[in-house]
Each structure stands twice: as structure tokens, then as C-alpha cells.
Amino acid sequence: MNIKEIFHKRNLVFSFEVFPPKNNSPVKSIYRALNELSDLKPDFISVTYGAGGSLINNKTTEISSLIKNVYNIEPLAHLTCISSKKDDIDKITERLELEDVSNILALRGDDNGDSRKDFNYASELISYIEKKKRFNIISACYPEGHIENKSIDMEIDNMKRKIDSGTSSFISQLFFDNNIYYDFLDKINKNGIKTPIQAGIMPVINKRQIERITELCGAKIPHKFSKIMNKYEYSPEALKEAGIAYAVEQIIDLASSGAQGIHLYTMNNPYVAKRIKENIKTVIKTINN
């Protein structure tokens, strides 16, 4: 099913994100996570873009095919463009189509100085894929502004360009302060943007990991959450439980405030996803009835 259609059928879309194994690890190393995550019956599972390897044998494509054709769940394949030529994108999209994968999360990707100049922005990739008329295209948005430019006005302009290029919905960058997200939604609504948006939520179970991630993406850590991390930094089990509880609180607040979707960054940890789904399943069921 096209993910665009899922938004028409659900008041609250709930999905997961997984990432491919490292290049020297077999794809089967993700089977356990997929087995357990599929049992939770998400609306779809997205697969981050795996760096390295050949374009045709990219693990993102292989895992997306598994999700679709083995687990019977709709996959969302991430695709970055800044270091790709049009021919590269053609090869990947042809492979995705052969595997019956019809949803793509179109991203620029990190600019490490190796841009090949066919694509400089995600909107250019979106426009290029849209011309094929074979894929539903989803994009990223940044409630706190992009790490390279924190201007929310510029972020809104970028979202409009993505919509005009063919985006059907958005998944937000992770955030830990719901008030920041609500302010963001208020601003985009005032700018006439009605395209569905899923809130990106990442449960924190490791302090160093989240500090590294927030440094890369620029998400703010609110004082309330900082206290939790500092309190349980040296007690992994306590931090895991506190991180799960914080994510559940975020999700219930978002769902109760009319969020259109929740996208859970699982970090390939089915235990955490399972605990969160168990805590919110009645909320999701009530909203979607």
C-alpha cells in the first residue's frame, strides 16, 4: 500500500525506522530485529540509506524488499543524492521498482565535499523521482531548523519547495521538547502547509549516543531530559527505563494534541520499541477507531 493512502485511513500513523548492518556484516543480522518489530504491526518501516557497497546491491534496497515481500509490511526506502549522479538514482529506483518498493524518503544526504553536482538539494531529487510517476515520495523536515541553517523561515520555504516538487508527507527530525514541535506546526500552518507530518521520536537509552546524535543534528536537550540523563548515566537499566518512559510521555502528549503520525527511531532495538508500543497501543487504537 502506498504510504499516502495510509494517511487517508489512519488518524494517527505509527511507524518504525531501522538501519542496515555495517558493510562487513551480513544482512541476516537484522532478521531478529525485523522479526520482532513486524510483530508490533507498524503502519510501515523505513530503512536508512546504507553507505558503501555497490548501488545495485545496497542493503537498504535488500532490507526494504524483505520488509515488503517477507514481512508484508510497507517499506520506506531512504535515498540520498548529493554524492550521486542521475544514472545512479536511475539504477536504484529501477531495483526498488523490481522489488515492489513504492515509497522513497528522498534526502540530500550529508555534504562531505564529494557532491557530484547532479543534485544539490533534496527538492531536486524529489522532482527527478516524481517525473518517473512510479513512487510515493516522503521528505524530511526540521522543527528546530536544519543543522546548516537554523532559520525556521528558510525551513518552511524548503518544505514548500519539496511539496511543489512532489512530496506527499514529511517525517520530522528527532526532538525532545514537544513545545518546540508545536511552535513549528503553528508556523507551518500559518504558512498554509497542510501536508501530513510525522513526529520523529528517539528513545534515549545511552547518554553518549544521544549527545553524539544531537551534536550532529542540532536538536536541543531540554532541562527536564538532561536531568534524567545525568541522574542515571551510570545505571544503564535505569536510564533505559527512564528513556522509554520519557518517549512514551512525549508520544501520548503528541497523540492527544492531534499529531498525524509518530515515527519511532528504533536504533534496531526491538525491546525498546516493544515496550513503547505496549504502553501506547490503547491510545493508538482509540484515536484510530
UniProtKB/TrEMBL annotation:
Cofactor(s) the protein needs: FAD
GO molecular function, one term: methylenetetrahydrofolate reductase [NAD(P)H] activity
Family per similarity comment: Belongs to the methylenetetrahydrofolate reductase family.
Catalytic activity field: (6S)-5-methyl-5,6,7,8-tetrahydrofolate + NAD(+) = (6R)-5,10-methylene-5,6,7,8-tetrahydrofolate + NADH + H(+)
Keyword Oxidoreductase among record annotations: yes
Protein name: Methylenetetrahydrofolate reductase
EC main group: oxidoreductase
Pfam families reported in the protein's UniProt record: MTHFR (PF02219)
Pathway: Amino-acid biosynthesis; L-methionine biosynthesis via de novo pathway; One-carbon metabolism; tetrahydrofolate interconversion
Organism: Clostridium sardiniense (Clostridium absonum)
EC number annotated for this UniProt entry: 1.5.1.54
Keywords of this entry: Amino-acid biosynthesis, FAD, Flavoprotein, Methionine biosynthesis, NAD, Oxidoreductase
